[in-house]
Every structure is written in structure tokens, then in C-alpha cells.
Please model this.
Amino acid sequence: MYTDCGLYDGDMDSEEISCYKEKLVKCRKPHKCNACDKDIPIGDYALNESGFMDDHAISCYTCTDCIEDWLEESGQVDTEDDRE
Model:
């Protein structure tokens, strides 16, 4: 559900990023969410996106709350309001 959700599709030019990967990870150290700028604590799950741009390694983490909000807003999953 979290991978391939398209959260940053409009923000990235895929031709600029090589070896792009995304996966759901359990954080082994604290990270900052790329979407809401809140801390993602050790042990929480986050979407990690990584690759290479201009021959430099790049990586970002997005908390699952932000991804769930995006999925609801974009209509990719039902919200509680939709089920009533």
C-alpha cells in the first residue's frame, strides 16, 4: 500500500534519478519526515526512497501517517467518511 503510492511523482523527474528504490523500513535510528518535517522515532515504519542524482547518493524518509493522509486525499483508499 505504501510503495508505489505516487506521493512525490509530480516533484521528481525520474530521468534525473538513477537506481531509484522505495521500500517500507523499520527505522533503526531517528529520521525527519520529508513531508511533515516531524521526527520519525526508532522502531516506527517509514517509506524510504533512495537513488543517485548527479552522481551523489540521495535518500529521504516519509512517515506512514503522511502517506496514509496522501492516499486518502488522492482517493486511493477509502476514508471512514466514505464507508458511512
Summary: Residues 19-78 form one domain.
